[in-house]
Amino acid sequence: MNAPRKVEVSGEAGYSIEIGPGLLADGARLARALRGRHALVVSDGNVAPLYLDGALAALAEAKPGLSVATFTIPPGEHEKTLERFTECLHALSELGATRDATVLALGGGVVGDLAGFAAACWMRGIDCVQLPTTLLAMVDSSVGGKTAVDLPSGKNLVGAFHPPRAVIADTSTLRTLPDRELRAGLAEVVKYGAIFDAGFLDWLESHADALLARDDAALAEAIARSCAFKADVVARDPYERGDRAMLNFGHTFGHAIETEQGYAGTTGDGLNHGEAVAVGMVLAARLSAALGRAGAADAERLQRLLERLGLPVRIPAGLDPQALLARMRLDKKADASGLRFVLWDRAGAARIVSGVADEQVLAVLREG
Ligand code: NAD
Ligand code: MG
User: Fold this and answer.
1) What is the pLDDT of residues 187-219, one digit of tens each?
2) DSSP letter at 143?
3) Position in ligand 1 atom list of the atom nearest CA 176
4) pLDDT per residue over 293-315, tens digit each?
5) Whose CA is nearest to atom 12 of ligand 1?
């Protein structure tokens, strides 16, 4: 096995992200991330049957005295609730978890957000080690310390900033990830290039086929480069008071599409988050061009790359531009002078822009 890639997140609560195939079978590596005698592994009903036993066996061999329990939730965003969070705390209580206990989050972003939030709250904060198994979790949700659960009235309304102690991304797990989930993760990968680095977009263009074919080396490279971008922005702005909001490129439009569809993507009939972000990035690029900030050719290039990766680039039929605009106005991203967007000056150079007029947004939405 090649040595895993390593990306460091610097700062007071710094940690490393290790990326490579087979890491979940490396008990010594897992054990190094644990400080105490108790560990709770949180997972979901799709991931646990595939990877839980292997990880537990590796850990038991490397750290025989460890007292381990598991807590498995049914899969899906609708399980990221306060009720599951409470159950997770009860599991920690039953384990007799002390302040040096560790929560291991084995799964996608749903498991990572829920387990991370439980770790943030148990005894006012214990270690969380993220073991992401979706591409989205590897490049986005496991890094940066945002944890949360949803309320019926909205996503991620209850949560905390709680950086993980370590992130260990076993890229072999991506072999079982459904195609649609893989593509959703690729949308967030493209986002990093769009915001920070046109050279990374070139690289993605030339490796699109390898990524879709789940070539190990291409995936590891894409994940490591994405994590480095995220690590950098998170270290500069851990609490999202400034620059970190750039990571919302495509997300203002994307969230409006997701909410207007009633999060149908989580049940299969609408766009999922990554797909909505893909459409949203094309709209943000077109809005940038319409405002005279960037050339139209950049928007077309972004659109072509996303299409090659099998992602949608147009607003789904039946969604009303006025209704989408109303959603954006409600989405904390509007002030008296107009809407706030992450736009770009050109591919690889994004910035936050306030005071965008409704009419300009509507014109882009009407084009679809
Ligand atoms: P997810 O956790 O629901 O996983 C997607 C699906 O893939 C699930 O059905 C899951 O069971 C399955 N799965 C996971 N790994 C698998 C594997 N290796 N093989 C087969 N199936 C597998 O979704 P996600 O896209 O990973 O994460 C989305 C969540 O992440 C949302 O709740 C979102 O709010 C959150 N998020 C958080 C942050 C953050 O900074 N904390 C950032 C982005 C997204
Ligand atoms: Mg996102």
Assistant:
1) 999 999 999 999 999 999 999 999 999 999 999
2) S
3) 19
4) 999 999 999 999 999 999 999 99
5) 46
The tokens of 79 are what? Answer: 């399980």
Residue nearest atom 43 in ligand 1 by C-alpha distance: 141
Nearest to 59 by CA among 31, 95, 97: 31
State pTM to two decimals.
Answer: 0.97
Amino acid at 180: R
In this model, does residue 335 exceed pLDDT 90? no
For the Cβ of 113 lying below 6 angstroms from any atom of ligand 1, the answer is: yes
Q: Which residues pair with 41 in a beta bridge?
A: 70, 104
Domains of the chain with bracketed CATH: 5-176 (3.40.50.1970), 179-208+237-367 (1.20.1090.10)
Atom 21 (ligand 1): residue with closest C-alpha?
177
Dist CA 327 CA 261 (whole Å): 11
Pair 270, 178: CB distance under 8 Å: no
Q: What angle do CA 219, 223, 229 make, to 5 degrees?
A: 150
